[in-house]
Amino acid sequence: MRIRQIALVANELEPVVETLCKVLDLEVCFRDPGIDLFGLHNALMPVGDTFLEVVSPIQEGTTAGRLLERRGGDGGYMVILQTEDLDAHRKQLAELGVRIVWEHALDDIATLHLHPKDVGGAILSLDVADPPSSWRWAGPVWEEHRRTETTCWIGGVQIQTSDPRATADHWSRIVGFPVIDGADGGYDIPLEAGCLRFVPDLDGRGDGVAAVEFIVNRVGGVIENAKQAGLEVQDDRFTICGTQIVVREA
User: Fold this and answer.
1) Maximum Cα–Cα distance across the chain
2) Residues 191, 81: contact at Cβ < 8 Å?
């Protein structure tokens, strides 16, 4: 199991996408017309063979729109984990009482969206791709838009919650990987690729994706890009789309 895609939610899509591409040196690979089913439009950017997505509501009454209201503006939206056997997960989810709110299967990819109230912390999706290196959600030519000169891959996601230990334990039961003590009072679930980090709610915005960690070739270069974009930088992090962007040296 690995982190394959992280989604952010924005009131206005294009300014956020433009800033992310400029600061992290990324390129949009796909805008999925299929997500109008959820009342959204989006943009996806490959980060190595992981993906960063930004979604934005185009109609009233969407889950994304309610999240924007609940958390007081732009922020993290969804964690998408790539796994190998959805049938095994279905059995485990049933035993845990975690409901599946939406599922979809195609020839080369399948997904389970889990009920946020049954998971806690953030919206979670479990996906299988065949072959594993593929990723239909990013469109047919995503590899042509992959730029790794600056930003290499998504290395982790930080999920804030009022009870990080209990939330981490619950996610551990869902994903099947153990919890270990992390830094700054948090708890980590290291996956086969990428790490889920559970931290206290320090900004009063409630449960949600608080930060995305990117592995980069040169931290100083990304920090300089952030400063030139007019972002406030603190050590190895800055904020875009209401979400801390943390950069770590490759």
Assistant:
1) 50
2) yes
pTM of the model: 0.96
Strand partners, 16: none
Q: Which of 189, 214, 215, 211 is nearest to 202 (CA)?
A: 211
| pLDDT tens, residue by residue, 145-170 | 999 999 999 999 999 999 999 999 99
Is the domain spanning 2-143 CATH 3.10.180.10? The answer is yes
Closest-CA residue to 27 (of 17, 42, 35)? 17
What is the Cα–Cα distance from 242 to 210, expressed in whole angstroms?
8
State which fold the 148-249 domain adopts: 2,3-Dihydroxybiphenyl 1,2-Dioxygenase; domain 1 (3.10.180)
CA angle 97, 98, 103 (to 5 degrees): 135
The residues spanned by each domain of the chain are 2-143, 148-249
